[in-house]
Amino acid sequence: MYQINEFEQRQLLDESLADKVAEILTAAVETKGKASIAVSGGSTPKGFFQALSMKKIAWHAITITLADERWVDIKSSDSNTKLVHENLIQNEAVNAKFFYLKQGENLCHETLADLNIAAKQQLLPLDVLILGMGEDGHTASLFPCSDEITQCLAQDSDALLKVTPKTAPHQRISFSFAALAQSKNIFLHISGASKKQVLATAIAGQECQEMPIRAFLQAPDVNTHIYWAL
After folding, report:
1. Beta bridge partners of 81
2. Domains plus CATH for the chain?
3. Deepest in the core among 34, 76, 107, 179, taking most CB within 10 A?
4. Amino acid 110: pLDDT
5. Nearest alpha carbon to residue 177 among 205, 207, 213
């Protein structure tokens, strides 16, 4: 299931989404003493990150992580970890905790197993999930071109998986659909006319392996709030 929220300007979207997420995180901290949020990379969420970083909430009780990460050095310009630290873990959010998906040099079986255990203990289910969407309909690193796409979308998949896309650089680590779908509040943050057309194509079809974002839009037990601005 999905609901679409449209905004005339990206700044209005960023502020509205930041207000909503801050409200959810605050409620979670008040209820259970902690909260978790997974965000996505790319240029689209930068304004949202900066708006959220200004919210005066209990950041010391909130853990931030990524829906997926490229297996690159965290100092690399391709690192989503770097992006989050430079744009979100700033200002009021400087005391937030961060769960690193990129740990160590090699994404081996042992590293993946350890990260799966830690994620289940510290993060899951996520209180908030912010997804993005590529022109091919991928979200997180659930790429339709990857050999791992069946596993990525399987209901019995591990929480974290190794993914090697064929149409994008770098090996990836990504939360699976099964893990992401358990998030209590799911948002899809997109902008621009081309992404709106991609969204329309995704809504019109059924095959999730062709466009993995469809899994979040069409599953009856998943409620995705779409935030779009031109």
Report:
1. none
2. 2-229 (3.40.50.1360)
3. 179
4. 96
5. 213
| Helices 80-87 and 46-53, axial angle in degrees (round to 10) | 40
pLDDT of residue 122: 96
Lookup result for tokens 């299931």: 1
29, 35, 100 from 60: Cα distances, Å: 10, 10, 16
Task: List, for the chain, all residue ranges whose pLDDT scores fall below the cut of 50.
Answer: none
Q: Token match 């990857």: residue?
A: 146
- Give the C-alpha separation, 137 to 150, whole Å: 15
pTM for this entry:
0.97
Residues sharing a CB contact under 8 Å with residue 116, sequence separation 6 or more, in sequence order: 158, 159, 160
Say whether 111 sits in a helix, a strand or coil.
helix
First-to-last C-alpha distance (Å) of the chain: 23
Which of these, 184, 149, 159, 156, lies nearest to 25 by C-alpha position? Answer: 184
Return the sign of the alpha-carbon dihedral for residues 69, 75, 76, 78: positive
Contact 165, 141 (CB under 8 A): yes
Give Cβ neighbours of residue 199 (< 8 Å, ≥ 6 apart). 133, 190, 213, 226, 228
Q: C-alpha angle 28/33/37, rounded to 5°?
A: 50
Query: What local confidence, expressed as pLDDT, does residue 27 receive?
Result: 98
Given a contact cutoff of 8 angstroms between Cβ atoms, the answer to whether 181 and 174 are in contact is no
Residues contacting 65, CB < 8 A, separation 6+: 36, 37, 38, 39, 98, 99, 100, 101, 119, 123
Q: What count of other Cβ atoms lies within 10 Å of the Cβ of residue 17?
A: 23
Q: How far apart are CA 177 and CA 159, in angstroms?
A: 8
